[in-house]
Amino acid sequence: MFSRYGLRFRMALSYVLISAVAVLLVEAIVAVVVPMAVTSNVNLGPSARAEMLAKGMAAGLGLVAADVAAQRGDLSDQALLAEVARRWSGQAGSLLSGTDVRAVAGPDGRLVSASVPPAYPAGSTPPGLTAGTSARSGPVGPWVSPGGPRKIDVVGRPAIPLQWATSPILVGGDAIGVVYVQDSSLPIVHFNWSSGGGWLTSAALATLLLIPLCAGFGLLSMRRLISRIRRLAAGAAAMAGGDLRSRVPVSGGDEVGQLEEGFNLMGERVEAASRAERDAAGAEARLVERTRIARELHDSISQDLFSLSLLAGNLRRTLPDGSRHREQAETMEQTIDHTMREMRTMLLELRPVALAEMGLAPALRELCQAYEVRLGIAVHAELGAVELDPATEHTVLRVVQESLSNAARHGGAQAIEVVLAAVNGTVEVLVRDDGRGFDPEQAGDRHGMGLGLMRERVTELGGTIEVTSRPDNGTTVRARIPGGTS
Fold first, then answer.
1. Fold for domain 46-186?
2. Confidence band (pLDDT; 50, 70, 90) for 158?
3. DSSP letter assigned to residue 435
4. Class assignment of domain 359-486?
C-alpha cells in the first residue's frame, strides 16, 4: 500500500506508529497499576488505622495530663480531663488533620468537649462510645457520612465506611478518660473511574506531539541511507546501460557499506569477464581470419606458383644447352621453388593447431611432422609429458612455432631439434637448427619482430628466453618458464 512512497516515508511512518503504540501502552499501564499500587500500600485493614490513631493520641494526651497534674496537683480527674481536652482541642485541627473525627470522652461515655471537626457536641455520645475506659473499636454503621457529603468517591460509591476506636488516657497508671476516633477504613485516594478520560486525553496529546517529532526524526535519519541507496541504484543502472566501469564510493562499514563493496567487486569481475570475452572473441576472429588467408593462399597463389614451376621446368628442358635463355629459365625455376618453400612455411605458420583438444605434446608433435612432410626438413622432437596451465601451454606452442618458422624461412635449415622437458619446477623449451644463423645484434626488422614477440610472451609469465646464433653456425632458442611439472 505504502510502497510507492519510498523507503524514507515508510521508515518515518513506522517510527510514528511504534511511538504511538508505546505511549498508549504506557498510559494504559499507569491508569490501571498506579491506583492499585496506591490502594495496596495505604490500606491498613478495616480498623487497624483507627486503633493506631486512637492509641497514639491517647499516649500523647496522657503525657499532657501528667504535666498538668504535676503543675496543679489539686485537680480532680474530671477537672484534669477537662483541662487536657481544652488544650488539645485548640491544636487538634492543625496537628491531627488526618482523621475524620477526634474527641475526648469521660468514663461515663460522654464527650467532654465538642469533636474536631464539630460533628458531635459536648455531652453527646457518638456511635460506639459507651461508659468505661477500655480500648475498643468497631464500625460506625452502614455507609454513614458524618459532617456532610464526602468529597471523594471510590469505585462509584457515594460514601466511605467509617471505623471508630477508643483508647484510655493514663495518668500514673489510672485511666481518667478515653480518646474517641472515627476514621475511614479504606484509603483516601483522589482517583475515580471518571478520571479515565484524562488519561485518554493525555495519551492523545502525547501522540499528537510525537507525530511531527517522529516524522522529522525519521526523515532526517533516513536521509543519508537513502542517498547511499540511490547511488547504488544509479551505479546499477549505469552498469546495466553498458558502463562496466561504474563504481560507487564505500561510505561505511555497515550493511549498506558491504553492499557497496560487493557492487564494486561485482563490477570489477563483470568488467574482467567482459574483457576476457572480448579477447576470446578477438582471438577467435583472428583464428578464423588466419584460416581463411591460409586457405586462399593455398588455393590460389600456391597453385599458381606450382603451375609456374612446371612451366619453368618445361622451358628449361626445351632450351639447348649453353643458351642464355636456358640459364634464365633455371634461375626462374629456382626462384619459384624458393617462393613455394616460403609459401609453405607461411601456411604452416598460419595453420591453427587444436591445442585445447590435443594437448601440448601432441600439438607440438603434429607441428614438427608438418614441417617434415611439407618442407622436407628433418625435425627431431623429444617431447616430455609436462603439466602446464593453459596460458603457459599457449606460450610454449607459439615459441616453438615461431622458432620453426624462422629456421625454415630465414635460416634455410635442413635439420631441427625440438626439446620439451620439466626441470626443477620450470618448463624448458629448446629449438636448435643447422641453418645459416645470424648476428642477433644486427637482426634488423626481418628477425627482430618475431624474436620480440617471443620475448614478450615469455616475460609476461615470469620466464626467460635466450637466442644464440652466429652466421653459418645455426640458431638455438632456449626458453625457461616457471610452473612445469613432469
1. Beta-Lactamase (3.30.450)
2. very low
3. S
4. alpha beta
